[in-house]
């Protein structure tokens, strides 16, 4: 039987290029399309854990944003968008708190929740690459002692990226690409915050266009889906509907994006550090 780029030989566990394929991915440098589709398979395989968790995180962020808007005296500014024209014509120089406060609080909730999803997805991706599945007990063991580092790494990278984009745009994009691997590194290599960020900067060198390309696709997919299905909120009722639909979209997009990042990390190490040999040896040892 001849294998295809996304189907291993069922007898020999190899792909169409002859690379070993013990699990989720062939153990060789991967194409962007392979990473994106493999991340979908990863989410589908572990949907029982990832989707409810991502939905919970998204729902918490949406509920927080809704409650903040509902309790603002000046919430009309959130819906009418007149502040944009006011800034454009010079009658105002600041964004109303009714606009940025709900989004900021929702962002904080989302960032903290995404730390959990990213950590879990990284473990799943690594084990799946070996053809193994990890249970909840194994998941807790692999992530024990990692949570504080994950939170700090995420806060630092989000803040640094946002600042860089706000100031000159390009520095923020570079920071994002250079620090993308910090969370997977912290989980899989048990590194601290500083070491994870430094190693991510080195490991991503020469691969940042690939990272940005994959990130652009995931962001683009989410943006297109949101534009098609999300209603534009004009009052609290339509806001609740919009946030609810957004939470459902994020329930898939968040773990998928985390899976893409985890697989980009594995791919980078196969390209630069011959990780494929180590993974194959680990897979053989478990047979």
Secondary structure: elements and pairs:
Layout: H1 32-45, H2 47-70, H3 76-80, H4 82-88, H5 97-129, H6 136-143, H7 147-167, H8 170-179, H9 182-189, H10 193-203, H11 208-229, H12 236-273, H13 275-285
Helix pairs in contact: 1-2, 1-12, 2-5, 2-12, 5-7, 5-9, 5-12, 7-8, 7-9, 7-10, 8-11, 9-10, 11-12
Radius of gyration: 21 Å
How far the N terminus sits from the C terminus, by CA atoms, comes to 23 Å
Shape designation: elongated
Q: Tally of extended strands?
A: 0
Keywords: Membrane, Transmembrane, Transmembrane helix
Protein name: Membrane domain of glycerophosphoryl diester phosphodiesterase
Transmembrane segments: 25-43, 50-70, 99-126, 147-166, 172-188, 209-233, 239-266
Any key phrases for this structure?
287 residues, mainly alpha, 74% helix, elongated, transmembrane helix, membrane, transmembrane, Membrane domain of glycerophosphoryl diester phosphodiesterase
3D structure, described in words:
The protein is mostly helical and 287 residues long. It has one domain (33-279). It is 74% helix and 0% strand. The chain has 13 helices and no strands. It has helices at 32-45, 47-70, 76-80, 82-88, 97-129, 136-143, 147-167, 170-179, 182-189, 193-203, 208-229, 236-273, 275-285. Helix 7 runs antiparallel to helix 8 (170-179). The longest helix has 38 residues, at 236-273. It is elongated, with a radius of gyration of 21 Å. Mean pLDDT is 84; it is low at 1-5.
Q: How would you briefly describe this protein structure?
A:
This is Membrane domain of glycerophosphoryl diester phosphodiesterase. The protein has 287 residues and is mainly α. The chain contains 13 helices and no strands.
């Amino acid at each position: 039987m001849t294998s295809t780029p996304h189907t291993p030989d069922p007898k020999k566990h190899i792909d169409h290029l002859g690379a070993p394929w013990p699990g989720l991915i062939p153990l060789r440098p991967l194409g962007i399309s392979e990473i994106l589709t493999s991340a979908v398979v990863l989410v589908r395989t572990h949907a029982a854990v990832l989707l409810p968790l991502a939905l919970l995180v998204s729902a918490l962020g949406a509920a927080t944003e809704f409650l903040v808007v509902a309790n603002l005296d000046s919430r009309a500014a959130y819906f009418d968008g007149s502040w944009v024209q006011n800034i454009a014509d010079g009658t105002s120089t600041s964004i109303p708190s009714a606009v940025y406060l709900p989004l900021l609080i929702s962002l904080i909730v989302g960032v903290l929740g995404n730390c959990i999803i990213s950590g879990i997805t990284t473990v799943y991706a690594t084990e799946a690459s070996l053809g193994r599945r990890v249970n909840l007990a194994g998941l807790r063991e692999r992530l024990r002692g990692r949570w504080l580092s994950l939170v700090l790494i995420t806060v630092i990278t989000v803040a640094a990226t946002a600042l860089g984009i706000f100031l000159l745009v390009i520095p923020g994009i570079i920071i994002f690409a250079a620090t993308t691997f910090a969370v997977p590194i912290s989980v899989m290599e048990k590194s601290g915050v500083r070491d994870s960020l430094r190693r991510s900067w080195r490991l991503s060198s020469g691969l940042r266009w690939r990272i940005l390309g994959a990130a652009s696709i995931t962001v683009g997919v989410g943006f297109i889906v949101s534009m098609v299905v999300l209603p534009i909120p004009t009052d609290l009722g339509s806001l609740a509907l919009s946030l609810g639909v957004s939470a459902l979209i994020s329930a898939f997009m968040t773990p998928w994006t985390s899976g893409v990042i985890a697989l980009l990390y594995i791919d980078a190490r196969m390209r630069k550090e011959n990780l494929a040999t180590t993974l194959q040896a680990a897979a053989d040892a478990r047979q």
